[in-house]
Amino acid sequence: MEKKITIIGLGAGDLNQLTIGMWKELKDAEHLFLRTKEHPVVGDLITEGISFTSFDEIYEQWDTFEKVYEEIVEELFKAAHEKGAIVYAVPGHPLVAERAVQLLLGQGMERGVEVTVKGGQSFLDPIFAALHIDPIEGFQLLDGTALKREEIQLTNHVLIAQVYDQFIASEVKLTLMEELPDDYEVFIVTAAGSHLEEIKKVKLYELDREVTLNNLTTLYVPPVKQSETLYHQFEALREIIATLRGPNGCPWDRKQTHESLKPYLIEEAYELIEAIDEQDDDHIIEELGDVLLQVMLHAQIGEDDGMFSISDVIRMLSEKMVRRHPHVFGSVKVEDAEEVVSNWNDIKKKEKGMKEESLIQAVPKQATSLMKAYQYQKAAAKAGFDWKDVQPMWEKVKEEIDEFQEEVKHAEDKTEAMSKEYGDILFALVNVARFYKIDPEVALAGTNQKFARRFQYIEKRVKDLNRPFSAFTLEELDQFWNEAKENGL
C-alpha cells in the first residue's frame, strides 16, 4: 500500500481565492486532514459534503506551538501508514509559515512516507495589495509565535504572521515596544483579499486590546522613517560616528587619532568607575555610553585608515569569548570560578604562543603604578613566589614603615631616599590588599571620592558661615568633617 501525504494550501481567504486544482484535490481526497477548521473555505467543504478531520483539539492540549506541530506530524504519519494516501490542507500556502509542513518534509523519507507539496495562494500577495506596499522596497516576514527583537529590521516593511490570539498579540506587542515608541501605529490585517478583509490601524500599546484575532491575522509594522526612533540601535550609532568623522563632519572628531584619544579613554573609564561606586544607574548608562564612544571612535579611525572596522573588533571578541569559554560553548567541565580562570589563562597562553618569558611582561606598560604593583604580585604568585597567609605581609608592611622612618631621620638626600622607602610601603600594602582580594586602585579611587565629598561639605559649611577658611581652626574644620561623616558622605 502506497504511503503518501499530499500537502495543499487553502489560500488566504474564501473559495474565490482557491484554484480549481486545489478544489479538485479537496473534493477527490479520500482521507482529508485540516490543520484547523477555522478558515473561510471550510464552510464550502461542509456545504459540498466533504468530510475531514481537523487538529484544532491538539492546540488545547499543549502549552507550546512546537509540541502542537510535533503531534500533528505524528498523527499524519500514523494516518499515512494506516490509510495509505492522505491529503493535509493548511491555510495559505504550505511553504509559508507552516512549521508542521517543514517537519513532514524533513522526516518523510526516514518514516517511509512520500511527502508532496502542491500549490495554494499565500497571504502575502493579497496583503501587499491590501496595504499598497511594494516588497522590492524591502520586507520581512516573521513568526509571531517566536518573535525575537534582534531579528526585526525596522527600516523594512515588517509582516508578523501567526498572531492567532490575544496572548500572542500581547507577547508581540511587548517585543515591539522594546524597539518602538508605545504609540507607534501598526496595522492588523485579517483575511486579506477576501470578502472578509479587514484592516485596522491601532497604536502599538493597543495591539492586544479589543481586537479580533484569528489564524488569518497578520500584523503589519510600517518602516520607521524617523532616524531618532532608531537611535538605540547599534547601526544608528555606527552611522553617527561615521558622519562625525566624514568630510562634512565635526572638525574635532575628524582630527583625532588613536594617540590623541588615549587620555579620554582613561578619563572615561575612571568616570564609569565613579558612577558604579555611586550605584547610580542613570550615571552608569551615561558613562558606559562615553566609554563606548571611545571604542567607536577608535574603530572608525581604523576603518578610515583602511586597517580594520568595528565588525573586525566584534568578530574577534566573539571568537575569543567562545574559544575561552569551552565550559559554556563546548564540552569542558569546570567546578568553580577559579577553574574557569585557570582554563582562561591556559587557553590565552596557547593562543598567543607564549614562550618561556617573564610573567611580568604580560602586565600592560601603560597601567598606573598601583595597578602594576598589583599585577606584578599576581604574576609572581602564579609562579609560587608568594606567602601562604597574611601575617608575613603585615610584618613586611611594618618593616618598610620602620625603614622609611629611619631614612627620614638619617638620609642625606632625604627626598630620593624617602621616596624609595615610601614606595616600598605602598608595594607592601598592595600585597595585603591582594590577599584580601581588594583591588587597590579601586579602593583608593573610592577613598578619593569620599574625601572629595567630605571636603566639599566643609567648603559649603565655611561658605554658609560667610567667613574665610583662615578664620577657622583645624579643630573646627575637623568638626565639619565629622558632620559630613555622620551624614553618610
TrEMBL record:
Instruction: Return the SUPFAM superfamilies for the record.
Output: all-alpha NTP pyrophosphatases, Tetrapyrrole methylase
What's one GO MF term for it?
nucleoside triphosphate diphosphatase activity
Q: Which residues form the Tetrapyrrole methylase domain?
A: 4-208
Annotated EC? 3.6.1.9
Superkingdom in the source lineage: Bacteria
**Record domain NTP pyrophosphohydrolase MazG-like: where:** 256-329, 393-454
Organism in which the protein naturally occurs: Bacillus songklensis
Tell me which UniProt keywords the record has, alphabetically: Coiled coil, Hydrolase
Q: What class of enzyme is it?
A: hydrolase
Question: Signal: is it a keyword of this entry?
Answer: no
Q: Which residues form a coiled coil?
A: 394-421
Which gene codes for it? mazG
Q: Do you know which Pfam families this protein is assigned to? A: MazG, TP_methylase
Query: What is the recorded name of this protein?
Result: Nucleoside triphosphate pyrophosphohydrolase
